[in-house]
Amino acid sequence: MLRALLTGVTAGLIALAGSASAETLRFSNWLPTSHPVVKDVMLPWKAAVEKATEGRVSIQILDAPLGPPPAHYDLAANGIADITFGAQAYTPGRFKTSMLAELPFLGDSSEAISIAYWQVFKERLEAAGEYAGVKVLGVFTHGPGEVFTKGRDLSSLDGIAGAKLRIGGGMANDVATALGAVPVQSPSSKAYELISGGVADGILFPFESVTFFRLDGLVDQGFVVPGGLYNTSFFFVMNRRTWDRLSEADKAAIDSVSGEALARLAGEAWDAADAAGRDALEGKVQLHVATEEQLGTLHQMLDPVIESKLDEIAATGVDAKAAMDDMKARIAAETR
């Protein structure tokens, strides 16, 4: 009887010790739960972390964000949240190296671009020191961004000139300006309201976002550029103090499902969402694919933007031209 009692007490103490050492990390997210980044990236990554750490680390994706989207990097850096997701472009001028992944004409696959981006980030960009206060768990991009409008003829580049286009900031702003459009900066959630109300004529978006934000019944034409007009860069980051208090085993476990694995997961999810989005536009939106002549004109208009961004990246101490060449080579290798 005594032995059974002692055995039960010992088992209880072991269970309590195990639960006391477990870490529950709070993840602040501002996207709707139905968004592909939540259901096809965050949730699978959460499950992968919990499996890799054998339950020693669990992740709680909060029901409501702890601040607006532009605040999410600082929410992690300051320890208000343990982990956050965000877009570097939401804080203009702060993350110059991320522009490398947002350049025009990089490629047609989010997966290829995201994997190449992570590899170049680790080997060339991270040393610029732009991510103070956090452990960078991953960086990736959405699929190629294109132009979509209501009531404008996009068979010619003239249809873009003068158009008021909603943009989210970053490279999209510079691309819209270089094409002669008028950028209207606003959250993506306001896109339907802006276009339906005539405040904007259209939007720069990947295919996924056109259908996710219910614009497929609103816009009527699209202009598609091989390689894309831009991409948007995103991050997953963890508060540095939170990271440092984890065991070496748990750090290694989290790293094993983050970084390149996270870039691949996100890229695959976005490519699938883009493909579904493009299929959903069939018969609803007239798509014009840029001709060789139009591509030549686009390069004349956008190559100066690329050079300007490379200069900004170089100001961080990174060999920007070498980084771009490396990025393109890795994208090509992933695409083959």
UniProtKB/TrEMBL annotation:
Keywords: Signal. GO terms for biological process: transmembrane transport. Residues 1-22 form the signal peptide. The keyword Membrane does not apply. It comes from the Bacteria. The keyword Glycoprotein does not apply. InterPro entries: DctP_fam, TRAP_DctP_sf. It holds the Pfam family DctP. CDD domains: PBP2_TRAP_Dctp3_4. PANTHER family: BLL6794 PROTEIN (PTHR33376:SF15), PTHR33376. This is Extracellular solute-binding protein, family 7. It comes from Thiorhodococcus drewsii AZ1. The lineage of its organism: Bacteria, Pseudomonadati, Pseudomonadota, Gammaproteobacteria, Chromatiales.
